[in-house]
Design a protein that fits this description.
Elements (H helix, E strand, L loop, with lengths): L1 H25 L2 H6 L3 H13 L11 H24 L1
């Protein structure tokens, strides 16, 4: 269970960095505003990891949406592993 927790924290931090760095490069103007700070990227990543998002921040560009889809799939398998191991 500790292993899955550590993996989840690493996934969250890695994807937050991805949104923070890729939004200015590949995002729309709204993406650049939404992910302007690392805290916003971390918030979005955490909400997306444990739920499917609240909708207050959502990427508009195709590239960032693909990153989000990848994150949802990885998060699903991590949480599925946590469920099976308990």
């Amino acid at each position: 269970m500790l292993r899955i927790f550590i993996l989840s924290v690493n996934v969250i931090l890695l994807f937050a960095l991805g949104y923070y760095f890729f939004a200015p490069l590949y995002g729309t103007e709204k993406d650049k505003r939404n992910f302007k700070t690392y805290e916003n990227a971390l918030y979005y990543t955490t909400i997306t990891h444990f739920t499917v998002g609240l909708g207050d921040i959502a990427p508009e560009s195709t590239f960032l949406r693909r990153i989000t889809m990848l994150q949802v799939v990885i998060s699903f398998y991590l949480l599925k592993g946590a469920w099976k191991s308990s």
